[in-house]
Amino acid sequence: MTSHHAIEAENLVKHFGETVAVDGVSFVVPQGTVLGLLGPNGAGKTTTVRMMTTLTAPTSGTARVAGHDVLTDPAAVRRSMGLTGQAATVDELLTGRENLRLIGQLYGLDAGYIKRAGDELLERFSLAEAGDRIAKTYSGGMRRRLDLAVSLIATPPVLFLDEPTTGLDPRSRVELWEVLRELVADGTTLLLTTQYLEEADQLADNIVVIDRGTVIAEGTPLQLKDQSGAAAQVVTVSHAGDLERAEALIRPHVREVHVDAGARQLTAPAEGLGHMTKVAGLFDESAIVLDDIGLKRPSLDDVFLHLTGHRAEDTAPDADEELVS
Ligand SMILES: Nc1ncnc2c1ncn2[C@@H]1O[C@H](COP(=O)(O)OP(=O)(O)OP(=O)(O)O)[C@@H](O)[C@H]1O
Ligand SMILES: [Mg+2]
Description:
Strand order of the largest sheet: 6-7-8-3-9-10
Shape: elongated
CATH architecture of the largest domain: 3-Layer(aba) Sandwich
CATH topology of the largest domain: Rossmann fold
Radius of gyration: 24 Å
Order of helices and strands: EEEHEEHEHHHEHEHEEHEHEEHEH
Number of domains: 2
Structural class: alpha/beta
CATH class of the largest domain: Alpha Beta
Largest sheet: 6 strands, mixed
Strand content: 25-35%
Distance between the termini: 27 Å
CATH superfamily of the largest domain: P-loop containing nucleotide triphosphate hydrolases
Bound molecules: adenosine-5'-triphosphate, magnesium ion
């Protein structure tokens, strides 16, 4: 394997008794990029992350983090990575600052460094004012931010985030995305799991979609959208009364046309920009006033539905803690 892959999963398998949680997952994450591991509840995301971060042993297969094998050199893997789990793991009885100090000390960092880096992280995660309050008094969003700050104190080159924004309000989510973008700009390699397609779309350079323990698709967000069905051109007329005439106008020029009276929209398969320009031209010469004409790509939601045949559903119980000693 080449060393420019910060993370490599090689045919990871995990059985829990009869349950096959992960069934042969492989992927690589080039250094300095973001991989979105996307899948519905129970797909095997957390189990995959736990194997890659030495928290649980693979039934078979292996993984490497910063070139270190999780089976043969787990200590080096742990030194190279930070992890923010699906459930916040901050110590509730310590203040934010104390939580940071504790983990910094566990990593063997010196007190002066911990103080400086800790202050900077509290600032970065908008926790500066709350830094001296015990974490018990924090909101869910503040705990998640503290959790992430703690996982960054040792400036690991590789960061694993298991559903980092679950439970955050939309504004906190966008703020966290900003912080993550900064980290990546500074060279951190990021693997994040998410059920939010938008999140993968926003942050990930590459997406691996898993369902029932196997990889069912991978690619850039754009590639995945392209895979799952054609783009469409959508014409929105200003006056509902024009819809029928608009349809008659374009029907001879498109393969098929779908009429949505409620939205005053006509949808036809996209056949390239030239074709769309031509369709737009038809309207120029008519008296029909348009609100909009544009190209609509399938959303990642559509992609997901297309790939899995189902939308994310809430079925899986939470995974228990199972530490490998
Ligand atoms: N410790 C465990 N013991 C038994 N079964 C487990 C354990 N951990 C996970 N599983 C099962 O393995 C499968 C994958 O679970 P996992 O937690 O990896 O999914 P996930 O993609 O993280 O889901 P979610 O989005 O709900 O977090 C599920 O069927 C789950 O019930
Ligand atoms: Mg999970």
